[in-house]
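Case study 2.
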Amino acid sequence: MGQDSVAKGKTTAIIAYFTIIGSLIAITMNMEPKNEFARFHTRQAFGLHLVFMGCALFLSQWFNFFVWVGLYVFYFALWIYGLVGALNNKKQPVPILGTSFQQWFSFIQ
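Prediction:
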């Protein structure tokens, strides 16, 4: 993957990390022309947002302050890791779930 390809997909990759709406916008931005760097980060960000929302919905049944803090710390740490990777032109999957996101969200082209 050349530097030119990374530069062209960088904006889309960064937008994907800003909320689930940003991920959906990034998916549509990457439809034509397709960019491998943008696709990688869109999958990562989409997965992070979905896992966070799923866990939040599950935890909404019980209010335990420490569990909520743990969820937010976990989400924020992975979000920062992914965003910094996109800003630094790196295709590094987020720890724990990143490689799974690439498989699960293969429909994101």
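DSSP finds five helices and no strands in the chain.
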